Every structure is written in structure tokens, then in C-alpha cells.
Amino acid sequence: MAESKDDLVDSVYQSELNPGSETSKTGSPIQGNESTIASTDNDNSTKKRNISETYPNESSKTLSSDPHSALSRRGISHSTQHKKASVYTDTNQEVPAWMRSKLANDAAHKYDKYGGRRTVELTIARSEESKDPYAKYASPKEDEATQLQPEDPYAKYGARPRQQADSRVIRRDPEPERKRRHNRPEPVENVEEPIAEVAAYTSVPSLKGPGNKTDYKTFQSNISHKENKDINSIVRQHYNQRTHQSKLQGSRTRSPIYKMRNFNNAIKYILLGNWVKRRAPNAPLVFLDLCCGKGGDLNKCEFVNVDQYIGIDISDASVREAFSRYSQNKARFIPQNPQSKRSRDSRRYNFEACFATGDLFSYTIPEILEKNFSGIIDALFPVDAVSIQFSFHYAWETEDKVRTILTNVSRSLRPGGTFIGTIPSSDFIRSKILKKEFTEERTFGNDLYHVRFEQEPPEDGHFESPYGNRYDYFLKDAVDDVPEYVVPFETLRLLCEDYGLILKYKQNFPDIFNLEIPNYFSKLNKNLVDGMKRADGKYGVEGDEKEAVAFYIGFVFEKVGN
Ligand SMILES: C[S@@+](CC[C@H](N)C(=O)[O-])C[C@H]1O[C@@H](n2cnc3c(N)ncnc32)[C@H](O)[C@@H]1O
Question: Which residues are mRNA-binding (predicted)?
Fold first, then answer.
């Protein structure tokens, strides 16, 4: 267990603290020190958390009657102008109330507001799904009239023992004092990998990418001894490598999945556009992006008029990229209230943002954020929307991980706030199993994507436990056989209820697109729309892409309470 916050921190990146100046020494346009990036290595493989056995009473903080004072970004910047990010701060100095109690108590009681776990027995009802909604997505045995069976009754699912510490994970040394003093981001490098494993990058002939405009270098990861690594290590390495390579690949429009990427982005625009809601007309809109990656959803946050963005991801290279993307596109002057933001410059980000590196499936959000953004929980939480896009499936290795991320979601959201995500469809997977559309290598898919199960999936499509049902996922030019886990949706729905999250919406990607895109065509960026134009002149995906996108669903839960 981490004895102190310092145990959790390997390095911190922060824009130059330079109130009054608009340009930091790193060249990023900043205002005060509001644009801050923090990196907290929260890899759980070498640490354990102490989670209490009962939830404390839900203590959703009521916002101050003046929402601007309660949630104001200025509030944060003012305090931090005098007091740099908390890593530099003596713990004896003034700290927020919740943190004082934390410091006074055993570390085990830290962040009680974020709660612990209780062991609950869920009786999972059988899915009422009676027809196969995936029959229309091309499959070799489409004609065989195979009915979907009802969902497995996961009446009982014990948590698996916590993963043992993995000594193979190379931890970064604490950041040298010199770097801390200068508060500068480190140059991008693959910090947790031995040099040999990143040789592919050092041997790239030109750092400017392929010389010929028509060349495109398809992404391939290079992770050795995957079989001996835990999922966090593989995932982080994979997304770190992807971040580095994406700069060298050539024009994105040449990617074999360019249309599919645009399609997936359109889905996310639709989901966020329909479900991110401001609390009140004059209240700032706060958005928490869990597993934010390279900040691919920053544009969508501008689209839905976010005022404050918080992004967290386990991949440090991705987080740095997200911060850099944000810094380069941040509006020079950000209107300070939602009304004046009607005149916001839509080509820029008219919101404040902060980014941190952390393992969201093993640590609470205060543990990840507070060390570097002292007071942030009091100032910005609860938030209006929590988003987790294309990432939740990595958590379904163990019940512990799923409960930790759901605690993070639920404790972060205001009542009425929304939890919005995209995950692989368990119904789609079951449909593949039932139709026996698997090769002998336990694989289904096509030239664009495939799914390979670690173990023979049960013939009736009902996995014994809802957790730990691992497969390797491949998507050309994006994901290179990275392990993921089945997310049995009915289990997710019932678990969410347990966390005060009620299902409002669930739809597969093709249906989201077909039903909603007419409302969005005129609102979406022209390049995005043009990037979905098919050979037949219509818009959407085609060929192998159809099945690859049908693999996913979007969901929305709402936090209940008052
Ligand atoms: C497919 S990417 C999605 C990125 C982004 N949400 C998007 O839609 O573009 C999955 C992301 O999940 C992140 N991730 C996986 N496990 C994580 C964990 N335990 N904690 C935080 N982030 C994690 C990865 O680093 C990666 O950036």
C-alpha cells in the first residue's frame, strides 16, 4: 500500500508557472498556470490499495450557491498562483479540508468520499434479448438461423485475488530535481521500455515520416514477451508506441481505417452531443475524460461547449500528446462565463484543461489528481459528465478493477450527470459464438479486425464468470493484438445500479449512426463528414468496416440522487 502520496508520484509535468504571461518557456500558450499536466505513475502492479468494506454515505457535495465560485477555474488558478502544484507543497501548509483529514488519518481512510467497496451479491437476470441483432452484419453462416440464447445468469461472481506485484514492470525513477525546478515536460520517449524494445522507432529513417505523400506506414507495435506481461504493462506500452509512431506514419487520410475512424468519431460526437448536459444555464460545464488517450475527444468537448476538461490515462506518452494538442489549440482568451462563450472561437479550445497519468482501474481519482492539482476535487467535482471511450473493456480482468473504475465514475458525477461510454458488445460476441463463426484458433473477424480468445469460449456463449474472459483484439493500423476482456452488458447494468447509475441508453454503432446522423450532418466538421463518404456516394462505413464497427455499442448511464 502506498504509505504516502509521494509513493504514488514518479514525475510531474507542469507548464511554466508564470502568471500574467501568455507563453510558457516550452512555447505553450498558457494563462497563469491553469494548463497543467501531471504524471503520476499509478501502476498497481507494485502497489496495493486499501479499500474499505463499506461505502460511506453518498456525500455528493452540493455546489456553492455561486457556481462560479464553486467550480471556477479561476478559483484553482488563484490558489495555485501562490502555491505551486501540490507536489512541491509542504504537507504542513494549508490543505483542503478533505485532505487534512486524510493526512491525519491512516492512509487507508484516504478519500473516503470516493468510497471503498462492499461485497454485494448480484442476481443477474437473464437477458431478455431474444433475437440476434447482429444477423445483418455479414458473416459466413448468416443463413443458419441460429437464435441468441438468453444471457448467462451470473448469479455469483467472486472477485479474483488481486494481481501479484509484477517485478517486470520497470518503474521510472523519481523525476530529477532539476526538471522539477524547471517544470518542463520531458522529451517524448518510451520510458518504461528497455532500448531494444523501441528499436523500431530509432531505426525509422526520417523523423519527418514517409517522404512520399502517398506512402503510409501502417502501425505495428513491438512488444516483446507479451505473454509474461500484465495487461497494464502491455496496454501502456502499446499506446505509448502508438503515440510515437502516429507522428511518423504519414497523412492520416491514407490510413486503411480512415473512414472507420471518422465513423467512430461521429458516433462519439453524437453520444456526447446528445448526453453531455450543463447543470444550469450559467453553470460551468465540467467534463471528465477517463482513459483520454491522445486527447482525441478534445474537439468533441469544444463541440459540446465544455468549460473545464480533465483527462487521465495510463499511457504517459498519450497524456503528453493530449496536453500538447490542447496547448497548441487553446484559445488565446477564454470567455469566463457560459453566456459570453456563445461567441467562442470554435476553431480553438475555449476551455481550461488539466491532464494526469494514472491507472484508473486501481486508484481513486483523488489519489491520481490531488497530489498534482491540490484542491481540484473541491473545486471542480462533482462533474457534469464522465466519458470512457473504447477503454472500459481493459478493466474487466477482475471485479476489483471494475468496481474501482465504477467508484471513480459514480463518486465523480453530480446527480443527473451522465456516464457515457463505448465498449465491445457482449451480444455481438455471443452471437459469433453461437453461430460458430470461429476458426480453430478461437478467432473471428475479417481482414480489418479480429478477436482471438485466449481459451475456448463456452459453446452456449455463457462465460462462467463475468470477469477475466480475455481475448486479443486486432484492428489494422490501430490495435495490435492487445488483450481485452468481455464486458457482459447485463452485469455492467446491474453493477451500475449498485453505484447509483441508471441505464438511459444503449445502442449498437450502426443503429446509433443510422438513427442519429441525419441530425448531425450539418453540425459536424466537413472533413469528418467527407471522410465517411463511401464508394457509392453515401456516407458511413463499407465492406469489412461494417462488421468491425458493429462490434461496438454506445451506452449512457445517469447518476441518480439529489
Ligand atoms: C483505444 S484507447 C482510447 C482513447 C480515447 N478514449 C479515445 O477514444 O480516443 C484506450 C485508452 O485506454 C487507456 N487505458 C487502458 N487501461 C487504463 C488504465 N488502467 N487507466 C487509465 N487508462 C487506461 C489506454 O492507455 C488508451 O489510451
Answer: 264-265
